[in-house]
Every structure is written in C-alpha cells, then in structure tokens.
Amino acid sequence: MNPVIAKQIAELLNSENQLVIPYTEQKILSTADNYLFELNENNEVLCCIECKKVQWYQFEVCHLTVNPKHRKKGLGQKILDKAIDYSKSNRGRVVQCTIREDNAASIGLFSKNDFNKVSVFNYPDSGNNVGIWQKVVSVAV
Predict the structure, then answer these.
(1) Cα–Cα distance between 61 and 54 in angstroms, integer?
(2) Is 80 exceeded by the pLDDT of residue 35?
(3) How far is CA 56 from CA 8, 82, 93, 136, 137, in A?
(4) pLDDT tens, 52-79?
(5) Which residue intervals of 17-133 are DSSP H helices?
(6) pTM for this entry
(7) 95 φ/ψ angles, rounded to the nearest 5 degrees
C-alpha cells in the first residue's frame, strides 16, 4: 500500500461511516497489512475492509465500505469474501464484526453470508446500539 491509497481509504472510511475517531493516512499506513481493498484501472479505491487478527483463532472485520460511486455492483460481497478467505488462510476459525443496529445494508450482507448476531450493546460515545456478529469459518469435525 502507498500513501495515496492510504489517504483514499481514510477519506472513504471517514465519509461513509459514523466514526467516533476519524482515520488518517498515517493510521492506515501503520497497520497497512490489515487492509484489503479493490482498485479500478485509475487506482481509485472501490471498496475496503479492515481484517485483523485479535486472537489465535479469531479475526475481526471492521468498516466494510464501498465507494458510493460504485455501489450495487457486488463489491461489498467481493471484499467480504476476500476478508473471509484471508482469515481462513491465516488459520482463523471465527470472523467477527460489529454493526450498528440501524445499518440495514450491512446487516443484510452479513446475514446473507451466514454471520449470526450473538449480542447487542450500546456504545455510549456514539449513542448507537451495536450488534456483534460472528461466523465460524472452520467447522468442527
């Protein structure tokens, strides 16, 4: 990842999410290995997701975001698939995310991909109720 792409990711995340703490180009670059993204032929970020290992068996995906100019083209599904594959290839067993309760589009996408809501909490800094969603990606034998 280069600074131009990191800046685009930060701008996309900040403009399309209800974030309490904004992202910066430097923050993205400092954890660049955690970001998956798709570019078009002009090196414009079409979509992105943060995918980070939080336990030996667990990955967290954060802020799946599709550029508004490129929505309804299957990019959300594509980047989520990429994150799940990345988690599996790095020995992940569970993928988890949090989704605001009023975010119908994300709830629909993650539900369609067999994520299950396991709990809800209130995030006092934003005032939002947030669901915790999980998917087991390595089934017990």
Answers:
(1) 10
(2) yes
(3) 30, 19, 9, 14, 14
(4) 999 999 999 999 999 999 999 999 999 9
(5) 25-30, 75-89, 104-112
(6) 0.92
(7) -115, 130
